[in-house]
Amino acid sequence: MKVKTKVCIVGTVGIPACYGGFESLVENLTLHKSENISYTVFCSSKSYSKKLVSHNNSKLHYIPLKANGAQSILYDILSLIKCIFLKPDVVLILGVSGCIFLPIFNLFSNAKIVTNIDGLEWKRDKWSQLVKRFLKFSEKVAVKNSDVVVTDNKAIGRYVEQEYAKSNVTIAYGGDHAIRLGSFDTSSDTKNYALGLCRIEPENNVEMILEAFSQLKYNLKFVGNWHSSTFGKELKEKYGNMSNIELIDPIYDLDDLYRLRKGASLYLHGHSAGGTNPSLVEMMHFNIPIFAFDCSFNRYSTDNSAHYFNGVEHLRNLVQYTPKEEMILNAERMVFIAKEYYVWSKIAKKYEFTY
């Protein structure tokens, strides 16, 4: 009987996935794992009222802290300390906040360290200068002390090579889980609206998209956390009463979200930071044209094949004047790219190859 490679996963809220991109990654790594891989996943006890012992045939260990926010550093460090005693062959770290502990961890463990450094968090405008400096330092320590550095986008991979002279492996996210199996009634969907879906933050160019559509007759449905910030509330106040714009609160029911995505005529992706965005690669599986903000992250994710905008007037003209034939060809191209690169069974194999 072949000995299994023992892998501990550190840095997420945990599984079953109920939070974000990294959690969906772990959900699918464990779901699609090979027979010779044994996963142990660290989970936040604060996020699970029901604490399962295992999920997807993987062991779960709970840490009594929140995985995000101010407690995330200690959460990751405690997870790494537990790894010392579990003696895994590999530790997969998702994010860099706890990586300041790696120099000490490596003194007590021979485990191979594979770290996904995430999307250059230190560059994001939402953080204070102090937090930005800490995240940049953590990133540096992570890259220096990891055996394998994983980036989710070629633009970030190039940055790691230039900034740290360190080779890395680019592995994106899967998106095929967004396609729901079974019979769904989409008869009421007339493909007559554009769709936006994101956290309502300035770096996601939400205002640019809303302003462009305020000058169009084209219908827009935009899903986001409008009530979580002053910025979101101001946008809802300004654009929420326009006849062609519908601002929708977050949708947590996967079937409802599927119907909304399936019924869209085009998808608007305004993200300007963070590498490969899960919502983008998910939408690429839906056979609809993609209009993305023009930045290196989005161009790499869509293989330079989407429609790109860089301002209100530019987006307005793209939506208004792009021929239907181009829209159809773009939708077909997005699906082709998605099936080639953004399928979870393929992503899981790529991660296992780094172990």
From TrEMBL:
**Pfam families from the xrefs?**
DUF1972, Glycos_transf_1
Which InterPro entries is this protein grouped with?
Answer: DUF1972, Glyco_trans_1
Q: Recite the UniProt keywords alphabetically.
A: Membrane, Transmembrane, Transmembrane helix
Q: Which residues cross the membrane?
A: 90-108
The Glycosyl transferase family domain is annotated at 188-299
Q: Where is the DUF1972 domain?
A: 6-176
Q: For this protein, what is any one GO molecular function term? A: glycosyltransferase activity
Give the organism the record lists.
Vibrio parahaemolyticus
Look up the domain of life of the source.
Bacteria
Protein name, UniProt field: Glycosyl transferase
